[in-house]
Amino acid sequence: MQKSLIQIVCPTFPNSEVYVLDDGAEVDLDLGNYERFLDVTLHRDNNITTGKIYRLVIEKERRGDYLGKTVQVVPHITDAIQEWVECVAQTPVQGSSKPQVCIIELGGTIGDIEGMPFVEAFRQFQFRVKRENFCLAHVSLVPLPKATGEPKTKPTQSSVRELRGCGLSPDLIVCRSEKPIGLEVKEKISNFCHVDPDQVICIHDLSSIYHVPLLMEQNGVIEFLNERLQLNIDMSKRAKCLQHWRDLARRTETVRREVNIAIVGKYTKFTDSYASVVKAIQHAALAVNRKPNLIFIESCLLEQETQQKEPSKYHKEWQKLCESDGILVPGGFGARGMEGKIRACQWARENRKPYLGICLGLQAAVIEYARNVLGLQDANSTEVNPDTDNPLVIDMPEHHKGQMGGTMRLGKRTTIFADKPSTIRQLYGNPKTVDERHRHRYEVNPKYVQQLEKNGLNFVGTDVDQKRMEVIELPSHPYFVATQYHPEYLSRPLKPSPPFLGLILASEGRLQSYIDRGCRLSPRQLSDASSDEDETVNGLSRVTNKFEALKLPGSVDNNNKENGSLPMKSLINANGCAVSDSTSDNEFACTGEDGACGGTISDASV
Asked: Fewest CB atoms less than 10 Å from the CB: which of 38, 236, 282, 478?
């Protein structure tokens, strides 16, 4: 069954993520959740705002559609809302067939002045489409005060009373709560809210969001909607349709091994700012039976200025970065925290730590490479320093300088892979092109591309005109990849994004074996238990190698009898890196002058 979706946006938390659709529409992060869960492709018209409706009505009035009548909220605004909904409900979101069901989310809280025209529009709409084609689900919080431990139903009673006062009576009441509510509480809500007890559904806090569809099925939601909307669903196929979700939910419960991924960003105080990035990491980790442990690092705290002003915070953030298994630098705008991102790129490159850069993460990696490999110490972005002598990152010429709104390169665009060896291309399945979504107004300066490539930085993906750089890669690094596009927008729970999958596999030391198998995981690699065994074997192997290197002076090496013993300088540590006899594991990370985090680059960091 094909489903369409419409979100009606009322004012939301200002620091949440901006999600980008295929057609370039910048929308609320909830549409990202809908695309991921339903695996559909939405468009700008699936997102309705008050501004869009008022603009539509004003344009109609200017054309004379209302024949000079006074434009009013009722009927002109409410009619425009209903016509928009009916039009979008017929628009395909998968293939070319029309959807059978259109899900509409009316955001905000009932009673808010911003949402009242929409509430009135749907009061009229229920009669326009008839009862058998209209079902209203009301989502309400049932708080559980710790002082009493008793669920409180008054907020639900009040909101339903307000809703019914506006002419809408809910068919389903979905109660969000910290813990499951009992039958007595359901009956109380049923009694005061004019619904049957079976129509009161509790969605309590769960260990994973992937359990929610299964919980709704257990509560009989499918049977209710099938009868209420006369959908004629074949119930015999239900178990098969939900089997993938059951497997995914079960995997979230059984996975034991963790992988530590550091997200070096500018907006880490609000995790919703990176909602799609977080989801994409989760999708990739679960695909290889790993539990992601996300470490958010404020990029400002990695900068030299912080070391002088707040050394404690500086060293704590660097310690978290050094202890991570992989590093991800997401997108962002503005000069704040840029130097911290650049230093994180340098540390990942010099210490062979798996790295994935997205949008600004690509730009930071290119600037870092120009500074520390090409020797262009003043290399920068014109966004940060418009007067730099070496502008490695520049604003795109077709966009208006000084005008922020509507000046970005947005939406799905094609990237062409170069005819050269590429890890990221292999992860995609060796296609000639790939389509991904973009959101940026700055790009790599093409004047420096040839110079960067001569010094080892490969540009393995460009736009269709081969002028804009889309993907970079370091061939000598275990995994150092950055993309100008945002791969997180097309990641799905059952179809993880290839760049994120590569980051997780590289962080686990399994990327090469994955590629050698034709980008397929073996059953043994998919088993969490076997991975524990592999880790034990690999750990013992490393320890054995270490003890073989630790030969006493004067002892005879069967492989090298002339030397007698290995010098201390060539000892191998547990991570497989060379160490010196005077440098501890942590000295190169946070001391000295030349390293990414202020540390001296010694044999330990090679």
From this structure: 236
